[in-house]
Amino acid sequence: MTKRAAEELAAGTCGTPKSAKMASHTLASRCFAAAVQEVDESGNVTVRNTASYIRYLHEQQNCTAAFICGTTGEGSSMTFEERKAVTYGWLCARSSVGLSSDAFAILVVVGFESIKASRELAALCEQAGVDGIAVMPPTFNKPKNATEVVDYLAEIASAAPSTPFLYYHFPDRTGCSVTAHSIIQEALSSPSRLPTLVGLKFGSLDVLDYGLMCDMDTEHKLALLPGLEASLLPLINYHSNRGSFGFVAATVSVFGHVLHRIVDLAGLHNKAKVSKADLQTAVELQGLVRAYMKKASEFGWTQTIKHCLVLAGVLQSDRMLAPLKQLTDEQRSIIATEIFPMTKKGVRAC
User: Fold this and answer.
1) What is the reported pTM?
2) Cis (ω within 30 of 0) for the bond into 195?
3) What 3-state DSSP class applies to 227?
4) Which of 174, 183, 211, 322 has the fewest CB atoms within 10 Å around its CB?
5) Using CA atoms, how far apart are residues 190 and 186, in angstroms rounded to an integer?
C-alpha cells in the first residue's frame, strides 16, 4: 500500500460507539446493497468516493443499508488493516452526508479463516459503532454439521457482545453444505450460545431451505434476508405474514429502484389489490434483473457493477483486487453499450 493510500484510509477513523444497538426488526425490512469497494489506480482500496456512493445508493436506489467487505466488496482479498480502514471509512462517509444509522445502516463481514483475526475485527466493529456484523463458515476447515457451524459463529460473535450478528449463508462459495434451516434450528434451540443472532443473509437458490427456515421462526424474531436477487420474487410469499421483507443484493447498486418495484408490485401485504398486470410487470422486471446478471456474469458481477458505477459518475475506478481479473477495454465497451443501458429501464415507472 502506498503512503498516500495509507494516509487516506487512516483519515477514516471517525467511528463512534452507539449506546443502543439495532434489533432484528429494524433490519428485516431494509434494502441492503452488497456494496462494491473501490480500488484506486495503484491497486489500493480507497474510500475517496464512498460518501458519493452512499448518497447515490440512498437517493437514487432506495437503499437503506450497506453490507460491506463481503463477497461483492472483495473482503476476502483484503488484509485486516484494509478491512479496518474501509469500515471506518464507510462510517465517516455516512456521517459526512448527514445520514444516521436509522436512515442507512452499515453491516460489516468480519470473517477470516483465522478465528483470532475474525474476533479482533468483530471487537473493532463494536467499538466503532457499526450496526451489525456478519460471518460465513470457514472455507478450508469446513464445519460438518449445524452444531459445528453455530459453535464457530458463537466464538466470533462473542467478541462483539452488544452488536447484532447475522449468519452469512453462501454455500456455493464456502462449500459448506449444512442447510440454513438446520443452522437456525440449532441456534434457536439454545439461544444463550448465540445471543446476538438477529438473522441471516441467505445466498442460496434453495427455496425449500428458505421456506423451512421461515417456518421455524414462528415468532418472526429474525431478519431473514434473501441474498440472491434472481430469486427475489419467489421468496416474497414466505413473508406475507411476517410483517416485513428486506433483502441484500449486489445489483442494488444499479437496480435498487427495480428491486423495490418488484416487491411493491407483488403486493407483499395486500394480495387482494394485486392485479394481473401488476404481477406480470413484476415478473418482467425480475426477468430484467436475471438478464442483467446473466450478461454481467460473462465479465464478473463485481467488475460489471463497478464499471456501471463509473459510467454513472459515482466511482472513478473499476479496478479489482487480485486474484479477480481486470476488465479489458473491449469488455468496458460492451458494458457501456449493452449492459449499462439495462439499468435505466423501469426508472420512470418507479
Assistant:
1) 0.92
2) no
3) coil
4) 322
5) 7
CB 169 within 8 A of CB 202: yes
Separation of alpha carbons 187 and 90, rounded Å = 30
CB burial class (10 A; 0-12, 13-18, 19+) of residue 304?
A: buried
Task: State the pairing for strand pair 31-34/197-202.
Answer: unpaired
pLDDT in the model for residue 349:
40
CA-to-CA distance for 49 and 46, rounded, in angstroms?
A: 8
Summarize pLDDT for 216-230 with one digit per residue, the tens.
999 898 999 999 998
β-strand 165-169 against 105-109: which pairing, if any? unpaired
Q: What is the pLDDT of residue 65?
A: 97
Rounded Cα gap, residues 147 and 145, in angstroms: 6
CB 217 within 8 A of CB 240: no
C-alpha cell at 262: 418488484
From CA 325, how far away is CA 18, in angstroms rounded? 39
Which grid coordinates are listed for 231?
430469486
Cβ atoms of residues 53 and 33 within 8 Å: no
* Tens digits of residue pLDDT in 42-87: 999 999 999 999 999 999 999 999 999 999 999 999 999 999 999 9
Question: Looking at residue 326, what DSSP letter applies?
Answer: P
Strand partners, 254: none
Residue at 255: amino acid letter: F
Kindly write down the DSSP assignment for every residue of 81-139, as one continuous string: HHHHHHHHHHHHHHHHTT--TTTSEEEEE---SSHHHHHHHHHHHHHHT-SEEEEPPPS
Nearest-angstrom CA–CA distance, 350 and 348: 6
* Beta-carbon count within 10 A of 138 CB: 20
